[in-house]
Amino acid sequence: MLDRVVAGIVPPKHHIALRSEAGDLRYEECLTRAGFDGPYTIAYHDRRPHEHRVAEAAHGFTLPVAAAARPLAKRHYRSQDLPRRGGPAVDCRVPLLFNDDAVIGLVQPDAADPVYFANADADELFFIFHGGGVLRTMLGDLRFEQDDYVVIPKGLFYRFLPDAAPQRWLSIEAEDIHLPRKWRNEVGQLRMDAPYSHRDFRRPTFVGPLDEGIRALVVKRGGAFHGFTLERSPLDVVGWDGTVYPFAFPILRFQARVGLVHLPPDWHGTFAARGALVCSFVPRPVDFHPEAIPCPYPHSSVDCDEFLFYCRGNFTSRRGVGPGSISHHPAGVPHGPHPGAYEASLGARETSELAVMLDTIRPLSATAAALAVEDPGYQDSFIAGP
């Protein structure tokens, strides 16, 4: 969560009457975390927000299923070769890698969501590789653009309205997506030495009561999709306050840290989650010791799988990858730069790469969709010639 926001009309105290100009009582809806012990938002509806009828779930994206077990190896998946499924985001998400803590996939929507959707299993993080649009929620509209991260809290219903331009988004479902706690001071404010400030984040623009004519809600819970019909528009909020809301963060606003010698990836930590850390690699100067080796060193991280989504720029440690490439380096065997990259980085003063990394504690499994776009020669590409 970022900070407290107040928008629209709210009463002077929680849990007291808020009435319309006609004298009608309005209804609170509390969106809470960790039961009632964590962050929360209170929204004020014109009508009862909990009137739903059970219905068929006519929409929902593909859920992850592991492909057959394979030998431990470095993997490269060319997500740019995935067939474009299209349709609304609620239907066209394709899972690629997953474990019990996170699901990583690709979304290429070309239509607005025809229903409201709430993920009650996990928070959601999208990286907008290409495209842009509007995320619509009861708390307001959130505009997003290429190179933005979009964070949506668990349980908040929404619909995506993508622009007409081609869309390609990286999606991550994970529990408790938040800003790493090491970047905050004791009152929750982002520290002055954090890699971003509160000013870098975009919050929703409050719209007020709105009726789009949509009366269908799909909820993902327990790894299944559940349908409901609504009595009225759920976008009848007149005001809200709290710390649970969606937000956007442009990756290029990340303030990368530079050291005398190479810094470990957690200095690039942008978001944390249960069992995972999301890092942003942005164009930046590199290490300034006269004998520094700027290229990432070979390492055996026996507690983490490493997922890397390449966006653009010159990826100095890898060859054969390009925009949309995904590398997966599993725990258990060393990984590092391709032959020649380590030596060639000597004397470099900057890097132009843009990439999103996810380190996970639990091993990642691949789906059949990932295997269909795998580069079979990647493992042996790390073997230097004579």
TrEMBL record:
It comes from the Bacteria. It is an enzyme of class 1 (oxidoreductase). It holds the Pfam family HgmA_N. Keywords: Dioxygenase, Iron, Metal-binding, Oxidoreductase. One of its GO terms (molecular function) is homogentisate 1,2-dioxygenase activity. SUPFAM superfamilies: RmlC-like cupins. Its EC number is 1.13.11.5. Residues 115-249 form the Homogentisate 1,2-dioxygenase N-terminal domain. The keyword Iron applies. Transmembrane segments: none annotated. The keyword Transmembrane does not apply. This is Homogentisate 1,2-dioxygenase.
